[in-house]
Specification:
about 475 residues, mainly alpha, Helicase, Ruva Protein, domain 3, Arc Repressor Mutant, subunit A, 3-stranded parallel beta sheet, 3-stranded antiparallel beta sheet, binds glutamic acid
């Protein structure tokens, strides 16, 4: 039974990289009918905030990454960590170290001065036959893990292949602070163990923690999970993705008019591929997803491609849903929308050409907000010939059936009768009826604006 987890630290919003890690963990669990666990790693009291927890939960929910268990909060599991800590000490796998911070710093300086790699020298590490220093009365000890000194730690990383680290590289890690609180790597180990995690899928910034975590798991007699370390996401300039490259918080994409399924689809392709497939549903992604196809090299975040993916999803989206999503963007700018035309119909007309909901909202505005064209704009487009032709068209438009083909035919007939070229009629018509020079096809635009309004505007300006 596959069990994966997403284990964010609530020290900011859910960012693009975190969301992709969550997506991969989620998809892997779903692919195998397994379980996806959410765990909030909130033990860094200075940097963790409840607002960040909310932001992460919101981001997960917007992206539809539903978890089967959790959220578990590490701060609520302190008694359990302390229990395991005591077990390790009792079994001789961990020990109290009374070296003060200053003492350790001096130790390190001396090592550096001697050209050695700074590390804890094991002075409080119990060994057979070794006499430990006198316990100082004024020092609260830390607990250190007794890391093996011989051999190496190796694992077959499902993304990166075999990784092997010599134990000589690893000193005895502090697993509890002087106040008794457990440290980061220790909590992760206890959680992955207790939560029966079978696959740890996380960013490759954690590769260095893995040998330490494996050694602790072994000391606990735990079954080791498989590890898969996913390469970082870079900006177009090859630097690690950060605010400089634009939005990194997932919820900012909601504000910028992206559909969650488009962002998911884009993230899925960031460092993972199934042939040349670009546009696919979550269900399809889950069916295809495997850890072996995760790329070993870092992916580059490409905002243009994300917009393109979003455009494909907008094009295919249901009109009513689009209307619901676009309405708030519009109302923020121009207040409550008139009931007519139906926003869903406007969406149908516009959705082929927008790459974000904001672009859709901007394009839709002309149907709800009208500014009488000023004299200059009119003078530019409304020639005397056009004026006359449009007066005749106005008459026509009062008589026809109000549907797209009839409107189209009426405009066409007006063009033919006037002997003018189409744009010479269509441009002033747009300016008068919509107040702008750019609209979707003129017949569809008139249809949606509605006969009464169209006639009123034409008559208002042409004086017919
Ligand atoms: N809490 C860690 C982070 O946010 C992840 C730890 C893990 O996945 O093992 O980077």
């Amino acid at each position: 039974m596959i069990r994966t987890r997403f284990a964010p630290s609530p020290t900011g919003y859910l960012h693009i990289g975190g969301a992709r890690t969550a997506l991969f963990s989620y998809a892997f669990a779903r692919h195998h009918q397994g379980t996806f666990v959410l765990r909030i790693e909130d033990t860094d009291l200075e940097r963790s905030t409840p607002e960040s927890v909310d932001a992460i939960l919101q981001g997960m929910s917007w992206l539809n990454l539903d978890y089967d268990e959790g959220p578990f909060y590490q701060m609520q599991r302190m008694p359990r960590y302390k229990e395991v800590l005591a077990q390790l000490i009792d079994a001789g796998h961990a020990y109290y170290c009374y070296a003060s911070k200053d003492e350790v710093e001096i130790m390190r300086e001396q090592q550096r001065a001697a050209g050695l790699k700074p590390r804890y020298d094991g002075r409080w590490r119990p060994e057979a036959g070794k006499v430990l220093p006198q316990i100082p009365a004024d020092i609260q000890p830390v607990v250190r893990f007794k890391n093996p000194t011989e051999g190496s730690v190796a694992w077959h990383d499902v993304v990166k292949g075999i990784i092997e680290i010599s134990n000589a590289e690893l000193d005895d890690l502090i697993i509890a602070r002087p106040d008794g609180t457990p440290t980061y790597n220790f909590c992760v180990v206890v959680d992955d163990w207790d939560m029966n995690i079978t696959h740890v899928i996380r960013g490759d910034d954690h590769v260095n923690n893995t040998p330490r975590q494996i050694n602790i798991l072994k000391a606990l007699g735990a079954t080791l999970p498989q590890y898969g370390h996913v390469p970082m996401i870079l900006g177009a300039d090859g630097e690690r993705l950060s605010k400089r490259h634009g939005a990194v918080g997932v919820m900012q994409y909601l504000d910028e008019g992206f559909l969650p399924e488009a962002l998911i689809n884009y993230l899925a392709r960031l460092g993972w591929a199934h042939g040349d497939e670009e546009i696919f549903s979550m269900a399809q992604f889950i069916a295809w997803f495997n850890l072996e196809s995760i790329s070993r090299s870092p992916a580059k975040f490409n905002p243009e491609k994300l917009r393109w993916v979003n455009q494909q999803y907008i094009k295919a989206a249901d009109n009513d849903r689009l209307a619901d999503l676009v309405r708030p963007f519009m109302e923020k700018q121009i207040g409550p929308l008139a009931a007519s035309p139906a926003l869903a119909e406007v969406m149908q007309l516009l959705k082929d050409r927008a790459s974000t909901l904001i672009e859709l909202a901007d394009a839709a505005k002309l149907f709800y907000q009208y500014t009488t064209p000023d004299a200059e704009l009119l003078a530019l487009h409304l020639t005397p010939e056009a004026h006359q032709a449009l007066q005749q068209l106005t008459q026509q438009l009062t008589e026809i059936d109000w549907h797209k083909e009839a409107i189209h035919d009426a405009v066409k007939a007006c063009v033919t009768a006037s002997g003018l070229k189409m744009p010479k009629i269509a441009m002033p018509l747009r300016v008068i009826v919509a107040g702008v020079t750019q609209t979707p096809s003129i017949d569809a635009t008139l249809l949606l604006i509605g006969r009464e309004t169209v006639l009123a505007r034409l008559q208002g300006i042409l004086g017919a």
